[in-house]
């Protein structure tokens, strides 16, 4: 073999070795990237975990600081009658914003029975109206409180 043929054979060996190293480099790099994105992908010994969702039971009629949590109504005698009879059709906010007297509440209940298909409340109506009048009475103030302690000044023309 001549020197040139020996040189070509050595170049071929080096070329094959470099190709092999480059291939190993690419495979190793791909494995590292896969491991970074999915660390459990190489965990062959572990068994798959079964996740069981257990519903948390929350007491919807819970009272905190004297307030019925779900509706925001004051805890007092007749609360559950109001919750069960009034909040089936509308929000408790509608009840609390309409502060009325007993006569107005009875008239409103009668109107709801005549036009909105509210059922007959029977003896519960007095308890419901008493709860509403006691805990959400009409406010005697107007749109805003009268301004006091104002230091007025004169406009100069």
Structural class: mainly alpha
- Helix count equals 5
Assembly state of the chains shown: single chain
Order of helices and strands: HEEHHHH
Largest sheet: 2 strands, antiparallel
Number of strands: 2
Fraction of residues in β-strands: under 5%
**General shape:** elongated
CA-to-CA gap between the ends?
A: 118 Å
Poorly predicted regions: none
**Backbone CA Rg:** 40 Å
**Into which percent range does the helicity of residues fall?**
40-55%
Q: Taking strands numbered 1, 2, ... along the chain, how are they ordered across the largest sheet?
A: 1-2
Give the rounded overall mean pLDDT. 87
Task: Please tell me about this protein's structure.
The N and C termini lie far apart (118 Å). Helices cover 48% and strands 3% of the residues. It is mainly alpha-helical and 157 residues long. The model has no long low-confidence stretch (mean pLDDT 87). Strands 1-2 form a two-stranded antiparallel sheet. The protein is built from five helices and two strands. The longest helix is centred in the N-terminal third of the chain and has 35 residues, at 3-37.
